Amino acid sequence: MRVNGADLDVLLSGKERSLAVVLLHAFPLSRAVFAPLLPTLEAEFRVIAPDFRGFGGSPVGPEPVTVDLLAGDVLGILDHLGIRRAILLGLSLGGYVALRAAEREPRRIWGLVLADTRSEGDDDDARLRRAAGVRKVMAEGSAAFAEAALPALLGRTTLRERPEVLPRLLAVASANPPAGIAAALMAMAARTSTTRSLPEFRFPVQVVVGEEDGVTPAGHARTMAARIAGARFAVVPGAGHLSCYENPPAFEAAVLPFLREMRDGPE
Predict the structure, then answer these.
(1) Count of domains in the chain?
(2) Fewer CB in a 10 Å sphere around the end CB: N or C, the chain?
């Protein structure tokens, strides 16, 4: 799909006339992180799952990547498909993008699912870690970067009881080009906070977080939810930062009631 001058790889599936749910993936992965959810979502909703620039099937391109640019891509995809309003389900980086899109174009948002993410921008220590990540991925490659970064994203229960999860995600991340990973690291380091916009949201919001998420802990997620009028909050047991992939049944149990209540929305 040609959007904003970029060739984006976008999965379109599910029920075309149903509520549109846009799945926005985590770093440093691709839309493959949502694979466990697709059978359920496709049976009930119109599913739109892009690969961000530099991930999966989407080339990074020559333009500097920012979270604002990625949010513009999401809104451009909706324009391309003629969708006036949709639910955005953002995981980690995808949550940053969903929040920025909602801040820019709140009338386009029917609802948000914010999973294992935060509204604040990076502090100086986080920016320095991002810079070190850029150096590592460009010097050593995507596989080396993924092997160092991904174990810290998973919960201890996943690492102990579901050992197959880590190698699957390593394969996804290692397939992404170093330039794409580096561009996303710089985009996340440069992103602005969306916290001040949270009280202004006038659409339903579901906040979800893994019980063992050490990157965006449950306390931070709960605080974010408290800033949004009427927001729902749920914890996914036995999962870390990639909760939808680590414990798909529990993630679905947290999110599906919210989506089902809204399925007759935009159309």
Answers:
(1) 1
(2) C
Q: Flag whether 217 is in a domain.
A: yes
Residue 68 has pLDDT above 90, yes or no: yes
Could you list the residue range(s) of the whole structural domain that residue 22 is in?
A: 2-120+193-261
In terms of Cα–Cα distance, which of 151, 145, 185 is closest to 27?
Answer: 185
**Beta strands 109-115 and 205-210: pairing type?**
parallel
Q: What is the DSSP letter of 51?
A: P
| Residue-level pLDDT at 264 | 62
CATH of residue 232's domain is: 3.40.50.1820
pLDDT at residue 26 in the model: 98
Strands (E), the chain: 2-3, 6-7, 10-14, 20-24, 46-50, 86-91, 109-115, 205-210, 232-236
Q: Are strands 10-14 and 86-91 parallel, antiparallel or unpaired?
A: unpaired
Q: Minimal CA–CA distance to 47: which of 8, 97, 11?
A: 11
Q: How many residues does the chain have?
A: 267
Tell me if residue 223 falls in helix, strand or coil: helix
Is residue 138 assigned to a domain? no
Contact 71, 104 (CB under 8 A): yes
C-alpha to C-alpha distances, 204 to 7, 20, 33, 107, 199, nearest whole angstrom = 31, 15, 24, 12, 12
Enter the pTM of the model: 0.97
Strand-strand pairing, 86-91 and 20-24:
parallel
Pairing of β 86-91 and β 109-115: parallel
Dump pLDDT digits (tens) for 39-66.
999 999 999 999 999 999 999 988 999 9
- Is the confidence at residue 267, as pLDDT, over 60? no
Look at residue 164 and tell me if it is in a domain: no
